[in-house]
Design goal:
Layout: H1 20-44, H2 57-76, H3 80-84, E1 87-91, H4 104-122, H5 124-130, H6 141-172, H7 178-183, E2 185-189, H8 200-219, H9 225-237, H10 244-248, H11 250-253, E3 268-269, E4 275-276, H12 278-287, E5 304-305
Antiparallel strand pairs: 1-2, 3-4, 3-5
Helix pairs in contact: 2-4
């Protein structure tokens, strides 16, 4: 029937450009999914011998990426992150208004250009040993040096190409990853009418919470939590370290550090019935000029080794 679109093609007049932030968000979502799958895989082997997966870690990560490609990009021309943001890949070799899906060859090339460099980077030490670039190798020193320089130059060129591609992406808004530019894949909206719609209410809420979080990050290190805790204990116990409340549990006070709650190591005292591990109270005294006992609120007069009385019972 005339006018019917071919399978895997659709038209969009005009083509709506995808925001740069949407493409970067899709890459972050894909990376988070890969990390989540790797964490779940490691949890499956957590009760086995430690380091069991370490020798095969690059291959296992490549296998996970292969499975993701097989069940996401290969059948639908879209990664998981792109699907969440209503995006997909199109073949740029066609007309801009013709939304043709990637060919199988392009999808396979995108997989190899994505997984291959990561695997080579993680296996670089093993490959150098296989090529005889490590110490004690039978190859001559001149050949080893030339080969190492060549590999270093190749790695530098790859990173430079990625940097130039990202700068071009910031300017044009297309191909945030070099592999996409090489295979001819471009991110477009999965539906012609789909646009990124973020209300001002959502933006204001995000700005408010981000500002509040940054304020807390700046404020919390300025608060002396130990001093606040000691003041609360002093207020609750009445500020009388030598009173009934302090003497009532005097025997138990020698059995645990007033800071960490464990059996005191190299016990020291501040002049109150409580004892402290030497390293616990020393770190507190270095961080704060005025150190108080968190149990009774006694201000430190002089740090000295505690004299623990031992009762022998027959």
């Amino acid at each position: 029937m005339a006018g019917m679109e071919k399978e895997g093609e659709s038209t969009c007049e005009p083509a709506t450009p995808v925001l740069r932030i949407s493409q970067l968000d899709a890459l972050e979502l894909d990376s988070a999914l890969e990390q989540l799958l790797w964490t779940q895989l490691c949890h499956c082997f957590q009760n086995l011998r430690p380091g069991l997966l370490t020798p095969l870690e690059p291959e296992l990560k490549a296998l996970l990426q292969l499975l993701l490609w097989r069940f996401t990009l290969y059948p639908g021309s879209a990664t998981v992150g792109q699907s969440l943001l209503s995006l997909r890949y199109r073949n740029i070799s066609t007309s801009p208004n013709l939304r043709k899906s990637l060919s199988h060859r392009q999808k396979l090339a995108l997989l190899l250009l994505t997984v291959g460099p990561r695997w080579l980077q993680e296996r670089s030490h093993s490959l150098r040993r296989c090529l005889g670039l490590t110490s004690g190798a039978p190859l001559s020193d001149g050949f080893q040096k030339a080969l190492r320089n060549s590999l270093a130059a190749l790695s530098g060129l790859a990173r430079l190409a990625s940097l130039v591609n990202f700068l071009a992406f910031l300017r044009t808004g297309y191909h945030p990853v070099l592999a996409e530019r090489m295979v001819g894949a471009q991110a477009v909206f999965s539906e012609p009418s789909v646009t990124r719609d973020v209300t001002y209410q959502y933006v204001n809420r995000e700005l408010l919470w981000h500002g509040f979080a940054e304020f807390l990050i700046f404020l919390l290190p300025l608060i002396n939590t130990s001093k606040v805790k000691a003041s609360i204990y002093s207020f609750v116990l009445g500020g009388d370290p030598s009173g009934v409340g302090g003497a009532r549990d005097k025997e138990g006070a020698w059995r645990e550090c007033a800071l960490c709650g464990e059996w005191p190591t190299m016990p020291h005292a501040l002049g109150c019935p409580h004892v402290f591990c030497y390293y616990c109270i020393k770190s507190q005294s270095i961080a704060n000029n005025c150190v108080r006992c968190p149990k009774c609120g006694t201000e430190a007069r002089r740090l000295e080794p505690a004299k623990i009385e031992t009762l022998l019972r027959h």
